[in-house]
Amino acid sequence: AQKITQTQPGMFVQEKEAVTLDCTYDTSDPSYGLFWYKQPSSGEMIFLIYQGSYDQQNATEGRYSLNFQKARKSANLVISASQLGDSAMYFCAIYNNNDMRFGAGTRLTVKP
Amino acid sequence: EAQVTQNPRYLITVTGKKLTVTCSQNMNHEYMSWYRQDPGLGLRQIYYSMNVEVTDKGDVPEGYKVSRKEKRNFPLILESPSPNQTSLYFCASSLGRSWLYGQFFGPGTRLTVL
Predict the structure, then answer these.
(1) By the CB < 8 Å criterion, does A44 face chain B?
(2) pLDDT (tens digit, 0 to 9) for every residue of chain A, 112 residues total?
(3) Under an 8 A CB cutoff, do B59 and A45 touch?
(4) Which among A43, A98, A105 is the nearest to B48, CB-wise?
(5) N- or C-end of chain A: fewer Cβ atoms within 10 A?
(6) What is the C-alpha radius of gyration for chain B, rounded to an integer number of angstroms?
(7) Residue B56 contacts residue B47 (beta carbons within 8 Å)
């Protein structure tokens, strides 16, 4: 079975600085997708970024980038130039064969 | 506006009283799924559906039922709710196996079973 691990229950970052949220995964399937979602205090789940297991380049979406290290089975999310509105829960997820697994999440707090 | 809607958003009920949480999407998505979110556990998949009349169990299906009679609707049914089903529930949809843009999530339903 697939597994996702987020080892940081909480993280703090100063406004305008960059922050890395860790995510490691375990799967025996060579084909999979990796996702990051943001959940603000209002509760909705917001899709941020996707990385396919065969993608050669790391995914980027605006201030979000995914540091994909396939050999290490890690898919860390990097947020550059943090903003106060980035304070939220962040979930990493892995998908393949109709099975989607989420990590326990990391609560990011951006300090002014 | 493309969206996934869930109703109700909040529900307090008692043990054993059957309830249904509705989910509807207006994007003609083939794939729909239900998750529950509990503190420290992230989101866990309950059931998913690849298309009309095609449903399958996810990670934690016990105590839940689903149906997919129409493409846009995917209700979650709790025949006899118990307190351990108190949770935040999300419905999601996507373009079948096209995961490139992730899943669209509904706003969530917070269920309390007393």
Answers:
(1) yes
(2) 788 999 999 999 999 999 999 999 999 888 888 999 999 998 889 989 999 898 889 999 999 999 999 999 999 999 999 999 999 999 999 987 777 889 999 999 999 9
(3) no
(4) A98
(5) C
(6) 13
(7) yes
Can the peptide bond before residue B8 be classed as cis, meaning omega within 30 degrees of 0? yes
* The token pair that represents A76 in the structure block: 């860390």
Question: Which tokens hold the place of A37?
Answer: 């979602």
Please give, rounded to a whole number of angstroms, the shortest distance from the CA of A60 to a CA of chain B: 13
∠ CA A43-A25-A42 to the nearest 5 degrees?
5
> Would you write out chain B's pLDDT as a tens digit for each of its 114 residues?
878 999 999 999 999 999 999 999 999 988 899 999 998 888 999 999 988 999 999 989 999 999 999 999 999 999 999 999 999 999 999 876 555 556 789 999 999 999
In this structure, the strands spanning A106-111 and A10-14 are parallel
User: Residues of A with CB below 8 A from B44's CB?
Assistant: 102
